[in-house]
Structures are given as C-alpha cells and as structure tokens.
Amino acid sequence: MIPGLAPVLPNFTDLVAARGQGAFLYDTGGRRYLDFTSGIGVTNTGHCHPRVVEAIREQAGRLLHAQINVVFQEPMIALIGELRRVVPEGLDTFFFANGGAEAVEASVKLARRATGRPNVIVFQGGFHGRTLGAVSLTTSKRIVRAGYQPLMAGVVPAPFPYAYRYGWAPDATLAWCLRELRHLLETQTAPEDTAAMLVEPVLGEGGYVVPPAGFLPALREICDEHGILLITDEVQTGFGRTGRFFAVEHSDTRPDILIMAKAMASGLPLSAIAARADLMARWPAGSHGTTFGGNVLSCAAAVATIGVLRDEKLIEHAASMGERLMERLQSVQHDHPAIGDLRGLGLMVGIEFRDVAGASAGELVKRVQRTCLERGLLLLTCGYREHVIRWLPPLVATGDEIDEAVEIFTDALRRVRS
Ligand code: PLP
After folding, report:
1. What's the CA gap between 165 and 381, in Å, rounded?
2. Considering only CA atoms, which residue is closest to atom 12 of ligand 1?
3. Pocket test residue of 44, 136, 235 for ligand 1, highest count of atoms within 8 A of CB
4. pLDDT above 70 as % of the chain
5. Torsion angles phi and psi, residue 158, rounded to 5
6. Helix, strand, or coil (residue 93)
7. DSSP 8-state secondary structure symbol assigned to residue 371
8. Residue 10: its pLDDT value, please?
9. d(CA 104, CA 293)
10. Rg from Cα positions in the chain
11. How far is the CA of 230 from the CAs of 13, 119, 252, in angstroms?
12. Which of 87, 113, 295, 342: disulfide with 91, CB 3.0–4.6 Å?
C-alpha cells in the first residue's frame, strides 16, 4: 500500500511499475513480470506499442485538448472513420467519453430518452462499472454494491446462463434463463416500461463465463418482439480480446447500442457508445455531455491502436493463441481436482476453482495467484467469490510467452497443493 492512497483500492502486489514493453512490465528494481492482466484488459496491443506511442507524441506536440462543445478535432474525425469499419454494420454514430462506467451510463441515458421507458434489464453476474448509476446495473459481487443503497431505480436483474454454477447442461440452462426472462417481462417489468436489456457478451468480472451460442440471438429476438433496445457492454470483450473485433460477432448479433472502452486507446482513457444515426437522433442536443470525453490524445492513440490490430493481424493471432492457451490448460486440468471448470473465448479464459480438502476455492486461487507473482507472472482473479483465475494476456503475446505462463501456473498449482 502506498501512503496517501485511499485503501478502497485493493492491490494484490506491492510492485511499483517503472516501464512496460509488449507483454512485460518492469518494476523500479528492474525485475521483469509477464503481464497477463493487460492492466485489466487495456493493453491489448502490448505495453507501449511504438506506433501508439509515436501517435501520442506527435499529437501532444500539436494539441492536447479540444473541447467537443467548442471545436471539432482531426483525430476524432479519423477515429469515427476507423470505428465505422470495425463495429457491427449500421452502428455508424458515436458518443465519446472517458471510461467504461461513463459510457455505460450514457447508453442507459440514451435508451431512456429514445424510448421514453424507464427500466433496464441486466443479467446476473454482470459488471458495468462503479459510479452510482453503473453500480446499480452491476450484480457481479456483494462488495461492489454493499453500503451504497439506495441505488438507481428501474433495474431488473435476469439470470445469465452460467451453466457451471447452476450445475446444468448449457442448453438446459439457456432454456431456463430465457423462460425466466420472459417471465420477468410478464411479472416485473412490462415491455412498455422496459427501455433496454444490458448484457456482457462474455461475463467479465462476474467470472469469465461464455454463454451458450444461442443466448445473444435470443435476446435480440425478444427485444425485437417488444421494441426493447439491446445494449452490449463490450468494455472488456472488445478490441480483439475474444478473437473477433467485438464479441457479438461470434453470434452475428447486432446490438442497438454497443459500449466500448478499456483497450480502445491502448492505455489512454477513452470510451464510446456506438448506435444507429436514427437512434442517436432521438437523444436531444444538450441532454448529455462531457468535458474531456473523446480527448484528442486518446483519439489519436485509438486510431493507432486500430491500425496496429489490423496491420499486425492481432485479432487472428489472439484467436490462435487463445486455442493454444486453452489446449495447454486442458492438459493441466486433468491433474488438478481443484480446477472445476475451464472456459473461454479467444484470449479471455477463466479457470473456476472449487473447494477441496478443507481449503476454499477463493483461498486456493489467492495462493496460486501469489505463487505466480513470486515467479514473475501477473494473473488476475474474478467471480463472485474471487474463485476464478482469469487469463487476459495482451494480444501480442507469443506462443513462447503463453507456454511460459502456463508452466509457471502449473508449477504454482503443484506447490499450493503440496
Ligand atoms: N463494463 C465492463 C464489462 C467492465 O469490465 C468494466 C470494468 O472492468 C466497466 C464496464 C467499467 O469500466 P471503467 O472501470 O473504465 O469505468
């Protein structure tokens, strides 16, 4: 803990980072760490990608701030052009903000104004941020909400098809979740009161849970039936993390609003929501705004980020590295009964632990995480009991780096068990 820093921010290391390069972070003592946290899904292009750094340097010498209500700026215009090439077809209009929670709130404000309806359906285990509005939409973990009531009204949680937690087959879980969702629309939030459904295509903080393939298309269908907007939160899944530019591409689902942040500018703060122009046109001018949103440096970094992802074929690389990581971890799973479930999409992989031999899954995970840290590997945890180890290496990670990380992890599992 650093003196003077609010203890509300827990930290699983005492490292002071001095510099970063690619998949590695270096502390002030010069020790190297394989950073498979990617700063919680931010450094998809690796730390300090030279092309991103150069774009920031170049822009910093020209203009640092261009307030959006006062003037337009070239990097934002270029970024809109780049984003239109990568978002699902038709989502051609953007609102820029600074971080994920802000963009989530913007999406809900847009949905409420555009539909004139108050309620939002969210999905159990979803994480959408920590500002008071965003945390009201979040159901991933008790500590995130405890002590902050009363939260924003009009939020109705529906079950997410987390088959392993329910202990059912994926298809049966999906069918039950969809029945419950329809039941909610009959009993708790009438369609004419429901502005939107807000969903993560893969649960992030809630445990790295990949829903069955039919989930998002089914939500799309139910939304269409009732004139409800479908909002997908791609803050963690976006920018190549799952082996596609956005995770909705895996199921060919087109949301009405797509939220992006985190990896968008490779480390500078930037977020956005994308929607069709006719939907954005129903958001009255002046009814929402921001001082810093779409900052000129961040936009320049985002243009470079998209260029790097495309030119270095990092999304294809993420898909193949994801397969490699999954294969390696599958062979580890056989020897370790504490591993209950292994799941993932691209380079977004979760290992859910279970309680064994008197140790809780959460304790085991903490010990494994600490042992990996001692060996120079940074791994994050997630899940409602912090009982899932999550793998989110940068998309630039090489096969050798993936193998090295799995080796350290396997060794940590052995040590923790013995
Ligand atoms: N949505 C998702 C899916 C996230 O994973 C996060 C952060 O982890 C957020 C929203 C909130 O983003 P931020 O921390 O930038 O406010």
Report:
1. 17
2. 100
3. 235
4. 100
5. -115, 160
6. strand
7. H
8. 87
9. 13
10. 21
11. 38, 13, 14
12. 87
> pLDDT tens across 30-77, in order?
999 999 999 999 999 999 999 999 999 999 999 999 999 999 999 999
Residue 35 pairs in a beta bridge with 378
Q: What is the largest CA-CA distance in the chain?
A: 63
Mutate to test the pocket of ligand 1, among 262, 388, 390 (most ligand atoms within 8 A of CB): 262
Q: What is the pLDDT of residue 418?
A: 57
Atom of ligand 1 nearest to the CA of 101: 16
Query: Residue 183: is its pLDDT beyond 70?
Result: yes
The H or E element containing residue 212 is none
CA-proximal residue: ligand 1, atom 5 (nearest): 236
Q: Ligand 1 atom 10: the closest Cα is on which residue?
A: 128
Pairing of strands 257-260, 229-233: parallel
User: H or E element: which one contains 331?
Assistant: helix 314-334
User: Rounded CA gap, 266 and 406, in Å?
Assistant: 25
Taking the centre of ligand 1 as the mean of its atom positions, its distance from the CA of residue 335, in whole angstroms, is 34
Mean pLDDT of 154-182: 98
**How far is it, in rounded angstroms, from Cα 402 to Cα 399?**
5
Give the list of residues 6+ apart from residue 86 with CB closer than 8 angstroms, or none. 245, 246, 306
Put residue 30 in one of left, alpha, beta given phi > 0 → left and psi -120 to 50 → alpha.
left
Q: How far apart are CA 189 and CA 195, in angstroms?
A: 10
